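Sequence in, structure out. First:
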Amino acid sequence: MGPRHPVDDGWRRGFIAFLSALAEDERQRMVKRANDGRAAARKRGVHMGRKSKLTELQLRVARERIAKGESAPSIAQKWGVAHTTVARAVA
């Protein structure tokens, strides 16, 4: 292999810049498709995120117990969840 010609480096940099632009464009399209998919799911009423640790019944019971003066940590300990889970749910 002989010494490199200056044109080689310019061509390579241009090619790398071209591939970089293609990758950036594809990334933007991927983000748009993902956002569109999430928006469509929300429109259909799909729940996003983590499943709740407490049922609707447990939420009602927790609200009633806290209203009567019981502490969130004592309720949480009985149900096997973190006290913050109960406190956040009734807030």
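Second:
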Amino acid sequence: MVYKLNLGLHKNQQIVYNDPHRFKVVATGRQWGKTTYTTRAAAGISLTKDKSVGMVIAPFASQAYNDYEAIKEFIPKQYIEADSARWLTLTLKNKSKIMMRSGENITAIRGFTLDWVLMDEAAFCDEDVWKVVEPELGPRMGVGWFVSSTNGRNWFYDLYNREQNDDQFKSYHFTTYDNPNYPVSEIERMRKNMPETMFLQEIMAQFLEGGAVFRNLERMMNAPGYVEPVPGHSYVMGVDLAKENDWNVIKIFDTATNTECHSIRNNKLDYSYQKSAVYQEAKRWNDATVIIDKTGVGGSVVEDLQKMDRAYAEAPKQGYLTVIPITFSAVSKPELFNHYLLMSENDMIHLIPDEITKKEHEQFERQKLPSGNYKYAAPKHHHDDCVTSSALAAWGLEMVQAGDLIGRVETSISQTAEFATKYTDIEQVTEWDSDVNEERMGVARSDTIRTLRKMEG
């Protein structure tokens, strides 16, 4: 049986559709016609390849259902043998099968051998979706097409660049201007009213430098490089302890200039080694104040550090450290990164431009939760240890600049006192009683009451 169907693609969609590469990665601006292209391409492949099995994957279940409805409506009824709204599946007269799936349910994607897969808004799916699908395409040398708006420099950015070392991949870039059916006047109106970074990402489909979170990364990474401690200078250390598959990262900043001076990154080290490393570096850098993550197993490490007066049992005594532990929670972690972002956007912190730190900042993600709060983290299978240690150090730098609050133990809390700060243009100051709020805010010494500061807004 011969099937005739005009896909009705615009010229740029047709260019991608006709391309013979096995894997095609298409980064586009909003309203380029991603969903139209994906659903009609699915229809075209299924009708031209008898007995094929394919899957359209969207980030959310509601979008997968919309794709199902769009394909069902587009394919003439006489070409459809059966359809199931329950299973979001269409079976055609040529025995081809089209399945719609949501990236939210990876288990439902497993267990198939596929001839093709199309991912709609791939950048907003989890990377694990692709890791599950790729092996399913292998037995039949199936094809994979990925169409999406950009979403910082996450795994979709890496996939977009894969054509550089894999000749089976071909990447395309289109802006909203490249949809001949979209009014240019509307795009120009959005240009005038949108923030520049939003316009560049949403309309111009740019993979923003610094990703979607750190928008001025190049300007931020302008420290001169590794230097030695300067006598008389004070330093702050941000420490993110290694947990299982993570990295132990120490970043050291000069409090006079908020500039990174030194960095240490390693993994697969036991906690006794990590404690010794933190102690020795803090002493080497003029008794640097240590801002450290004490979440989970870090709690026992922090307690040991607070009791240490030497690097290891046989070492000579050098005195105790000033250790400020921070417990990450749903409240304290977003606040820590919000503070770090404020400092970066106001050119108030300077990093050494090393590639690993740059990559982590580019991939770092911010997700808005239903509560209205934000969740900050690296994408799955990526690391954010350099980002976290920098954010911890940034918190410490602000404390020191605000008036040597770090390390000052107070016997009582004044609920009405006000603290002067050089950052009054970007924050408000509130006091917290560490006994009451230690677990909620995560910034306190376990055996003292301390005057603390909280970023608001």
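Remark: The domain at 11-202 is CATH 3.40.50.300 (Rossmann fold).
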